[in-house]
Amino acid sequence: MAHSTNELLRAVLNSRRTPSSGGRSGGSKQSSRKGTPKSARSARGSRAVSRNVSDDEMDDNLSIASDDTWMGYDLDDAEEHNDNGFGGSDEAVDSMIGSNWESRLQAAMDALSEKRVTTREQALAAVVKILSHVYIGDGLERNSLTCLESMRKCARTAKSTMEGQLALCGISLWFVNFGVDSEPTEYGSVSEQLKAMVLDKSKHVKVRALATGALGLVNFIAGSDYRDAAQLMEVLYKQILEPSLVSRQHEDPVVVRQALETYGLLMTVVIDGNTAFGDQLFDTAFDAHMHALAADEIDVRVAAAQNFALVHSALAREHQRDVVSLGSSPPLQPQVFEFERQEELVATLRMLRHQSAKKHGKRDTSTQRSVMRDVLRIIESGEAPRFRLAFRGKAVQFDDWTRILRLHAFRAVLGGGLPVHFVENPLLQEIFQADFEAGGADSATNGARIVVDPSSELAKARTKSLDRRRRDAHNAKSQGIDDDDY
Fold this sequence. Notes:
Elements: H1 5-15, H2 55-61, H3 75-80, H4 90-96, H5 101-111, H6 117-133, H7 143-156, H8 161-178, H9 184-199, H10 205-222, H11 226-241, H12 243-247, H13 253-273, H14 275-293, H15 298-325, H16 342-353, H17 362-381, E1 387-391, E2 394-398, H18 401-414, H19 418-424, H20 426-431, H21 457-480
Antiparallel strand pairs: 1-2
């Protein structure tokens, strides 16, 4: 089926837009930068095309063992855009990602330097499509940095909003594919570029929003320490989320929503590195999140509510650990922790849960109700959502807000390529502590429903490996790179 240039480009962007009404995706148990990236270096997988997760397989194997539709994979949105979650028709995706994907990718990279903007847009769309639906591994060899620099140039000198958006998608996907092995200088220079785009209010709001999401994801994958994440959170708070800025309409709701989501992703890093410090950070931003709950846009409310759930669950776990360390037995029921302004927060969440559908429509209101219900559960009774996603016959369980927000972030950038990267990309397997037999044909059909237990010896060993690698990366940065470089 033939597609016009604009249709193809818009489809690429639609497939990885942050879900607005439905399709909030989830995460699992006590993953951290104890389940964060700089770890998967040793697990580099094959560079084989990962299209062995077919469109039909994706629909069949991606199951959600929960009635919480707001956390599910965005199949409804995929049908709405007639793209089966891949951002284009089956024919368009198959023709783009075939056995000759390497030559197609190289041709697209070569075209990124063309003078005509439409040519660069088409090339960027091709790069985004391939990077999202193929785990490249070592496939580009030394050309991976060339690819990154070309996309950075497109983002910096973009002559159209679409070129800027596609370039930012490409940068995020580059780090999903290669960021674990990137050097500190690469992370630092990309981070500074993205930060400048976030703060440049002359940029289109969609470009700024995508830059905000990319900034968070790049830090999550390649940042060397939780303090890096905290610094970015401070920037987001002071420049975008601070209540006086929002109330004066200095910020567009699209940017505010993405800033809240990025704040939440980075908070998962901080609370894993230093929960008390995360508590202090969030205390500063508490009013901003309460203000966001009162926003007109449901997306903004949902993002703020999820951050409350994340921080509350983390502080409750920390409180429980403190009790145990003092010699008391662990409580039989989930530990209920209370914010200082718990009553005000609960009253607001309850009001939003029961809000009428007259203003926003049934679907959006249903999304809000589902989110507020689950946030109230964790805040009032310590009960987290529980669901499973199955890829290639193996199910990964999600029952913790940290991994719920992390899964959302990767789903937003990978779109329909999420199953491919879950199965092939060691980065995602490390973060979500999910095991897949590399290239095991039987695993796609054996029907096994294996849930990787975060308390297992395998998970503990991975956690130790991750911590060691992050310490090494931080020490390398401290010894060899000036702060000014960042």
